[in-house]
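Person: At home tonight, work slowly through the protein below, taking as long as you need, and write a paragraph about the fold.
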Amino acid sequence: MKLMKDPIRREPVNVGVIASRPNSDGTSEVGYQFLGQKVDGTLSGRQIGVPRDLYERWVDYFVNKLAEGLRGDIARLRSARPTSFYLDHVATLLDDEDPSESARRMYSQLVTDKSSDMRNDFDIRVDELFIEAKIQPERNVSVQGLLDGVEIDVGFGYSYRNGQLHLMDKVVASPKAQSARKNANDFAWRAHLAEAADVSSSFLAFTDLSRVPDSYVENEFKSLFRVAYVADVSRPEQASEMLSSLFAH
């Protein structure tokens, strides 16, 4: 599915993929994947810059028409008047792959998901710091935390032990101050629970401060800097020095 926000410049972008497989009764089995699609299947129009209700109406229209086998209705609508959202036939799948699997696979090839790209870049930068520090951390760890005297499981992205246990995780410095503060507070809360259980007193947060104002250090990330070392991946030399010092054997 394409979106053309500016009919003058005529620069459409791919915002999703719908795959369909015809049934014997004229209907079709449909699978799909769209930008801004959440785990529960709901959509957010924020990533593509359109109102959510508009986005959802067009997605529902195309998905339902294809499921009902009414491709002609889609073609007639497009020929009758230009629309911001429209479908382009990209590929014919000749094997018996499930439409949902086809949609997910084609989505990764056709749709540029900037939020996903940023996360992948973040992961790469963190891994590069680990390589530079010559350590191999445990990943996706769960440790014991203590909340009001009750033992609970607390998760961190990484851990490393060199005489003491270091607990680490990525913290997204969202351009939205409220989201950034929530991310920082979440890390600080988990660190507090782990420290209360005497599991660790050494915490390291990886973040990228290159896209946010300097005020984040004193405001949005205040709780983070109080409980953890903070490695800014956008400043790899300083971050590498911090890790080398922290993990010195």
